[in-house]
Specification:
This protein has 471 residues and is mainly alpha-helical. It has 19 helices and three strands. It has a three-stranded antiparallel sheet, with no helix packed on it. Keywords: Membrane, Transmembrane, Transmembrane helix.
Length: 471
């Protein structure tokens, strides 16, 4: 875009607003994240009575969680292809419909099949899509303040998650478990408001003047001078070549029509799935690293209370340990908000690798220590690493791909994470059962962090050496 001002031509470019309507996007994403993840820690409390009524044992619950994880992964992966055919808000409304149908359906379920369908399939499909488009909106609206935005959103979500057990407890005591499901369904209905706020970023792009380099202007002038000396084309030349050019254009047009007709369903599917991105991103550290790390972190979080009970900790001590871990998580999120501008000097991958080091050291420290106070300190630092590994995932993905490929890349990450849970989750449980030791399972999970660290450092060193070799 260029504008004439005072005889001088000024060029402008359209950039993300880094504010403006982006603040409404904050509200929308906070609503979605509260609906999607704030009550996950209360899963056992919320559905305990329903599990008893439906006679669901641990096997059924593990199967339910597996189906839920796969549906979240697949729906998150399919978000990118869907956005190539319909707008983001329409995709968001579809996700909100699925999620709310599942939420309201849970209120009335009286069979295992209905519960699996409502919670494991319908609600999970909505969660996967909403998760992807929420972070895609942040990626579209913010560049310089992206880390600040993610930290703020995650901090508010963490505060709600911290208070959610008390809210669920009061609701269960006052209205029973069906009444609690009505409350959760009402909270989830706010996703329709959130999706309606997600306006296309094209409506809010900011016009910024481009700084032109004088050398480029001189080069343009030189090209113009040379073009004046170019020989002109005579009318006779045009007449001689007219019949040939007409035939060539007609032939090219026929070839183009033939190619369009031959383009079938297979080509459309490959184009929608962005196969080129899958080939380049699927096996990269930016996709596999966060997926494996997040799986190892969540698996550790799930077995942590049982591991502490196994070393004869009391219920009060375990509750204190979990609270300290949550405190470390929350404090780190707040620190990200405060120091977001200073952290911009580092790449997201570098901060993420630092988080992996903290995750590795804290787990090794917990396993090696027998002192109660030392373990509590390591657990607090574990909360810090958990925050880094969760908050920075969208930033790590966005640095690895082009802006227009972010949604598809997030979908690939979610798909890898889902299959990691499906394949390795039962393996961790089997190791625990075969060895009759939580320490063995934690050592295996900790080794996942070490593997990711090694491969990521190798990749970074290789890229730096490659840049040095270039002339």
């Amino acid at each position: 875009m260029s504008v004439q001002e005072g005889g001088k031509s000024k060029k402008y470019e359209l950039v993300p607003p880094d504010g403006g309507w982006g603040y409404m996007i904050w509200i929308a994403v906070i609503i979605n994240m509260v609906a999607v993840s704030a009550f996950l820690g209360c899963f056992g409390i919320i559905y305990k009575e329903l599990f008893i009524q439906l006679e669901m044992g641990s096997t059924h619950i593990n199967l339910l969680n597996g189906i839920n994880a796969i549906c979240v992964a697949v729906s998150g992966f399919m978000t990118g292809p869907l956005l190539k055919f319909i707008s983001m808000r329409k995709v968001g409304f579809i996700a909100a419909i699925f999620m709310n149908l599942g939420s309201f359906g849970i209120i009335f379920v009286n069979s295992q099949l209905a519960f699996f369908l409502c919670y494991g399939v319908m609600q999970a499909i909505g969660i996967g899509i909403l998760y992807n488009i929420s972070y895609s909106s942040i990626n579209d609206y913010f560049v310089k303040r992206r880390l600040f935005s993610l930290s703020l959103i995650q901090s508010v979500t963490a505060v709600v998650a911290f208070l959610s057990p008390q809210l669920v407890k009061v609701t269960l005591e006052a209205y029973g478990y069906r009444g609690a499901y009505i409350l959760l369904a009402a909270i989830n209905m706010h996703t329709f408001v959130a999706v309606s706020l997600m306006q296309p970023v094209n409506l809010h792009l900011k016009k910024v003047e481009m700084i032109t380099v004088e050398e480029n202007e001189m080069k343009l002038l030189m090209v113009d001078d040379q073009s004046c000396e170019m020989p002109s084309v005579k009318l006779s030349d045009k007449k001689c070549n007219s019949s040939y050019s007409d035939q060539k254009q007609e032939k090219d047009l026929k070839l183009h029509v033939t190619e369009e007709r031959s383009k079938g369903i297979r080509e459309l599917i490959l184009e929608a799935l962005d196969v080129s991105l899958m080939k380049s991103f699927l096996l990269s550290n930016a996709a596999l690293g966060p997926a494996i790390s997040l799986f190892a972190d969540l698996a550790f979080t799930l077995i942590l209370p049982q591991a502490l009970y196994a070393i004869n900790w009391t219920e009060g001590e375990v509750a204190w340990a979990v609270s300290l871990a949550n405190l470390g998580d929350l404090v780190t999120r707040i620190m990200f908000i405060v120091f977001s501008n200073w952290l911009l000097r580092f790449e997201s991958q570098q901060i993420y690798i630092a988080g992996l080091f903290v995750a590795f050291i804290t787990r090794i420290g917990m396993l090696a220590s027998e002192n109660f106070t030392a373990i509590l300190i390591f657990l607090t630092l574990y909360g810090t690493s958990r925050c880094i590994l969760v908050v920075l995932i969208p930033l790590v993905v966005s640095e690895a791909v082009q802006p227009e490929q972010f949604t598809s890349a997030m979908g690939i990450f979610m798909l890898v994470f889902g299959f990691d849970n499906l394949l390795f989750g039962p393996a961790i449980g089997a190791i625990r059962d075969l060895t009759d030791s939580y320490a063995a399972a934690i050592y295996v999970l900790t080794s996942c962090f070490a593997i990711v660290i090694i491969f990521w450092i190798i990749e970074i060193c290789y890229k730096k050496n490659k840049l040095k070799r270039q002339p």
